[in-house]
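Technical annex, item 7. During the second reporting period the consortium partners agreed on a shared format for inverse folding records so that results from different sites could be compared directly. Each record opens with the tokenized structure and is followed by the designed sequence. A conforming record, contributed by the partner at site C, is shown below for reference.
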């Protein structure tokens, strides 16, 4: 298992190093930038259902103390957060790159989770993420790998 994980990380890093902004386009004009913004919007509106609508069937994620997990397992483990009406997760891309062939790309951005209770709405967590996108046969873009790191909590 560890060998497969290390191999996946090496392939991911080598693959990312081959990406460049296509034809001098600004990040915000790339289709995956717009797809990432839409991904955040539909997740905010529809929770887990919205999230899963933007990921490929062969979606994978890397989480602490866990091997790579697929779409079904992700849905099971994140359903509580993404379907909690008191919690909201939103993100925004900060960087987008696409392969020269135009069928793969990645976005890097920041996310924030807020929670609303009797005291009002307050931050519950934040961090950075990387999403790898693949163009589908129908021309849409779907996330094939998503992972992130949580920011260090501020000192009280």
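Designed sequence (site C submission):
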């Amino acid at each position: 298992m560890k060998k497969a994980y290390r191999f996946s990380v090496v392939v991911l890093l080598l693959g990312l190093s081959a990406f460049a902004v296509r034809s001098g386009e600004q990040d915000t004009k790339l289709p995956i930038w717009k797809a990432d913004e839409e991904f955040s919007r539909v997740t905010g509106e529809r929770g887990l259902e919205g999230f899963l609508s933007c990921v490929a069937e062969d979606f994978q994620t890397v989480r602490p103390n866990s091997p790579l997990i697929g779409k079904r397992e992700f849905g099971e483990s994140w359903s509580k957060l993404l379907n909690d009406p008191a919690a909201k997760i939103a993100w925004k891309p900060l960087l987008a790159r696409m392969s020269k062939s135009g069928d793969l790309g990645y976005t890097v951005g920041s996310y924030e989770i807020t929670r609303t209770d009797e005291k009002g709405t307050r931050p519950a967590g934040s961090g950075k993420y990387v999403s790898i996108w693949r163009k589908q046969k129908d021309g849409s873009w779907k996330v094939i790998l998503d992972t992130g790191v949580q920011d260090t909590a501020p000192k009280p």
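The domain at 2-150 is CATH 3.10.450.50 (Nuclear Transport Factor 2; Chain: A,). The first helix runs from residue 2 to 17. All partners now use this format for quarterly exchanges.
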